[in-house]
Amino acid sequence: MRRFLRARRMDPWAVLLWLLGMAMAVIWFAPFVWMVSTSLKPIDQVMTKYVEWLPRTVVADNYIKVFEQPVARWALNSFIVATSATAFGVILGAMAGYALARLHFPGRAILFTVLLASLMIPTEMSIVPLYIAFLKLGLTNSYVAIVLPSIASVISVYIFRQFFMGLPQELEDAAAIDGAGRFGTFWHIALPLARAPMIAATILLFTNNWNAYLWPLLIVFEEEMKTMPVGMAQFTPVIGAHTQIVGFGPAMAGVTLLSIPSLLIFVALQNYFIAGVSRAGIKG
Description:
Number of helices: 15
Strand order of the largest sheet: 1-2
CATH class of the domain at 77-222 and 271-282: Mainly Alpha
Mean pLDDT: 84
Number of strands: 2
Order of helices and strands: HHHHHHHHHHHHHHEEH
Structural class: mainly alpha
Oligomer: single chain
Low-confidence stretches: 241-245
C-alpha cells in the first residue's frame, strides 16, 4: 500500500508548474472574456466602478452599430489578403526551407543565420521604402500591394527547414533511383510528409495577415479596399461629452468579430500546430 501511495505521489515541481500554467491561462483568457462581455453590454454598464465580468443586460446594439458599416466588404478583403499571402508564404517557405535543409551549397549556414537575424529588425523600418516603391509602381489601393510584402516569411522558412532537416536521406536516395529530380523529390516525397509544419505555418501566417494593420492602413486609401483591422479602427473609443467613454461597446464588438476566424482555425487545427512547432524546435 505504501509503495502504491509513493507511486501516486505527485512531484511538487510538477504541481507548481501546473498551477503556474493554469494561472497564465487565466491571465491570458481574462481579457478575451471581458472583451466579449463588454460587446454585449449597454453603454451605461461599460464604464462602472467595479469590473463586471458578465453583463447584467445582454444587448446587440453594439453589433448592430458595427454592421452599419461595410463589414462584409472588409471581411472579404481580409479573407482574400490573408488566404493569398498565406498560400504563397507556405509554398515559398517550404521551398526555401527544403533548400536550406537538403541542398549543400556555399554559405548555407550563413544565409540561414542572416534570415534568423532579420527577425530582430522591426517591420516599421521597411515601411517607408516599401511605400515609396509601391507608390512609384502605381500599385497602391490593390490586393497586390497588400499581399506582396507578406509572402516572404522567415518563420515559415524556419519551421519547414527544421522539419526537413530530420528527413531520412534514404527517402531522397530511393526517389533518385526511381528517376525523380530534385524538385520532384521535394514535391512528391518531402512536401506530403510535412503536413504538421504546413498547418503550423498556415495558422501563424493566416493569423498574422488577418490581423495586419499598419501596412494596409498606409497602402490603401479607398473605403472598398479596407481590411477588417483598418475598418474596425474607426470604432476606437474616444472621450466624449461629460467625460463619458463613447464607442467602447462597438469597439469590443468589432474586435470580437475580428478574432473569430483566427480562433476557429487554431481550435480546429491546434493538435497539428503543436506537433509542427514541437518538431521545428527539436531538430538541429
